[in-house]
Amino acid sequence: MGIKFDGTNVKNGSKVVANMKSADQLRDGSSSGGKVLGNIKSRDQIRDGSSSGGKVLCNVKDGKNIRDGSSSGGRTLIKISDAAKQIGTSATGPSTALVWWFFAK
Predict the structure, then answer these.
(1) What is the domain extent for residue 78?
(2) CA neighbor of 57 nearest in space, from 80, 81, 75
(3) Which alpha helices (DSSP H) does the chain contain, by range?
(4) pLDDT tens digits, residue range 39-96?
(5) β partners of residue 10
(6) How many structural domains is the chain composed of?
(7) CA 29 to mean position of chain CA atoms
């Protein structure tokens, strides 16, 4: 069974492996108190950990592609629509990139 993201929970089969109960943070497990894996405090940048100063992992500055690092000229990793398919969601925003980075990359 593959990863499925419903906008709040990331499931592997029936088990919740991560959640986005906070709109800008991906947390480990089903608890809103779980370890923060990554965040989207900047609207178009996916960062490591809970800090807005964390390392930029990837970005969605053009809204169509997930790109490596912080630059809009960075190497394209995947189209955001293809990433959405991989994680079983119809959403194509930064949250899709965040979940894809940690669970489908």
Answers:
(1) 3-103
(2) 75
(3) 80-86, 94-103
(4) 998 889 999 999 999 999 999 999 999 999 999 999 999 999 999 999 999 999 999 9
(5) 5, 18
(6) 1
(7) 15
